Automatic annotation (TrEMBL):
A Pfam family recorded for this sequence: UbiA
Species this protein is from: Lentinula detonsa
Protein name: UbiA prenyltransferase family-domain-containing protein
Superkingdom assignment: Eukaryota
Keywords per UniProt: Membrane, Transmembrane, Transmembrane helix
Membrane topology: Multi-pass membrane protein
Keyword check for Membrane: yes
MF terms (GO), sorted A to Z: transferase activity, transferring alkyl or aryl (other than methyl) groups
Amino acid sequence: MVSSASIPSLNSGWKTFQEVHIPIQYLVIVPRILFLFTASDFKTVMIPVALFTILSTPYIDLHSFLAALFWTWLHLLQFCVSNQSLHIEEDKLNKPWRPIPSSLIHISTTRQLRWLLLPACICLSVHYRITSAGVLLSLAFAAHNELGFGSHWLLRNACNAWGYAMFNAGAVGIANPEVLKDGRLFHSFVYNGLVIFTTIHAQDFRDVEGDKIIGRQTLPIVYPEGSRLAILVSMWGWTSGLIATCHGIHAWLSLIFGAVGLVIGFRFYCFRSARDDRMSYTLYNLWLVWTQIVHLPA
């Protein structure tokens, strides 16, 4: 006769089932959380950097390109985790689907993740021999978030310009390190930084209510009318200037890009609801992609 001790109980069987399936749950929820941290910035960072990397590199293999994308995403994750762990009230109003306001992750866990991502990003940058880009980008994140530079419109714009330049430099450095030796590409980084510095407050119109709650002094809050006039003038000015200096653009493309830049600028100025600002910002990102690639060296 088989003793009862040798027969697995229902409780032990259920415990074994849980032990097997809990990791499976984590395999589902963890990627979702990481994606939601960065989801709203794919169109503002991942897509422009990917296109800049492809078009600035005469030859790029798939492995190097995917490595550049992963490096870019991991650094974007570092920024998003840092930023979102410090401004919970804003996200509760503006983006309640993000991991912290939707209770997918606790704030203390998020802060731990933030400081784990810092050495991870530095190590990855060292591995790909782009240490300077990784360190400078992480410094920009800390300045913007932990040091509070992102709360003042001037320092905020400067951090954004700095960050975009380092994102581009790092991704290109992984994809094809030889390209960074081309002095003309440095000029592209400078142009991109200046465009970002003078127009990136386009992202702040849609978040005015949330920014007011946490006391952030963005340009649309400090200068409600002037900031909209500034985006109109700066977008039209950069579009006209880039068309005039980039002689490889066909006349009909110049006309299209000029019209698009002017229309988006006017849209920011004339249509001012939160919904309109979100749509205008989406269109702005399309314009931003064009400005980043149109002046690349041939």
